[in-house]
Amino acid sequence: MSKFPMAQGLKVAAVTGAGSGIGEAAAMKLAKDGFHVAVIDILSDKVSAVARAIEAIGGQALALVADVRQADSVDRAFEAIENWRKCPDVLVNSAGIIVRGQLTTPLLSER
How far apart are CA 90 and CA 35, in angstroms? Predict the structure, then answer.
């Protein structure tokens, strides 16, 4: 039995890096395809603008500020999505992380 019985047939997507570029385009496309979209980015003004654009075309959106470099920030975002609708059916990881250094520099998870 579903943890979200009222959510049968509801399609939910979470898009990181949704404040601009490929992430924004993916969020808009998913909204046009009937998904309720969690718009996630590190910049609050960007997520708000994209969420408003989704709502302007008749879609449902949740604007979330999260830093994908921080596990607790991502955890809070996904908890908010589940409280808003349900666990996402689709995840688009479009957030870009720039790490300056040599190829031999340890990964973020190793720091």
Answer: 9
Q: Left, alpha or beta for 107 (phi > 0: left; psi -120 to 50: alpha)?
A: beta
In terms of Cβ atoms closer than 10 Å to its own Cβ (0-12, 13-18, 19+), residue 83 is exposed
Residue 90 to residue 30: CA distance in whole angstroms: 9
CATH of domain 8-110: 3.40.50.720
- Rounded distance, CA 21 to CA 86, Å? 26
Give, for all 111 residues of the chain, the pLDDT tens digit. Answer: 345 444 567 899 999 999 999 999 999 999 999 999 999 999 999 999 999 999 999 999 999 999 999 999 999 999 999 999 999 999 999 998 776 766 666 666 665
Fill in the DSSP letter of residue 106.
P
Q: Assess contact for 50 and 39: CB atoms under 8 A.
A: yes
Rounded to two decimals, the pTM is 0.82
